[in-house]
């Protein structure tokens, strides 16, 4: 055997052995393609597609720190921001809010689910000011909408029907003056067409009165480039004021309101808002007052001046004519009251807000009270 034959035979043997070992080797699987998150621009900024679905999701919220004070003493009119609570010293507040908003398109319109998680602290420990526990997180709102249909727990349609722009809430400020803010479990429907809007809802009345009979809220209005006008009414099946549970007077009540906002030409964001309210009694849909009871007639005027995209200020005045005696009563006291407010908002940088409010309240036969706060908020 010559050297050439020996080399050829050795190479053949090596190939055979290598092939046998290769047959026994474990092969790594091919990596699956990466599915990157896609931006969803159908509903505004911040939405993205949940991977593998056509559902768009937005996570948003804010954190604030607030410091406030008031002048209330026994015998004074309760203050705008703190009522009759302790006001000798600084009142601090810390809030964390997280919004989870999921939307998708269907043949019946946009399908949406919304959850708001929120926690509040006094700034020194537990929200009540006692102990050192962290502030508890609660579900502040949770609802579903499909097209104009809405079910769940959110603001009453008397306060915010999720359509109608300026017809919602009260003045231009965060606190909004006195306008009857409350949250309710409800079933409702909203529509918008060529500037016209409307809403109607059946709202939980805490099983008062006949139990099976809900409260009813309805609103109609029109909005255009010049501004907005609206009218609304609410039926309180059993007039236990402002959500008090476990009591029944056996009498119904109702409330109504009209309003208009006029946008100031050549001043984007600046507007004048006027609203009037009537209550036949101290009921669930009254706008309340500095004394915590409804008035027969209430008038609200608010003006907002937007000096620039980052700086604005508003002033508001509210008058309460003939306060009721309270606890669902339709008995008038003849007492009048009023409140005034100044609010300033400044965005020194994007998504960081510095906001302040100063309020004054005065009822007949009582001294007035001053209250206010300064707040720092980081949005995301």
UniProtKB/TrEMBL annotation:
One of its GO terms (molecular function) is porin activity. It is a multi-pass membrane protein. SUPFAM superfamilies: Porins (SSF56935). One of its GO terms (cellular component) is cell outer membrane. InterPro entries: Porin_alphabac. GO terms for biological process: monoatomic ion transport. Keywords: Cell outer membrane, Ion transport, Membrane, Porin, Signal, Transmembrane, Transmembrane beta strand, Transport. Residues 1-22 form the signal peptide. Pfam families: Porin_2. Consists of 16-stranded beta-barrel sheets, with large surface-exposed loops, that form a transmembrane pore at the center of each barrel. The pore is partially ocluded by a peptide loop that folds into the pore lumen. Belongs to the alphaproteobacteria porin family. Forms passive diffusion pores that allow small molecular weight hydrophilic materials across the outer membrane. This is Porin. It comes from Mesorhizobium australicum.
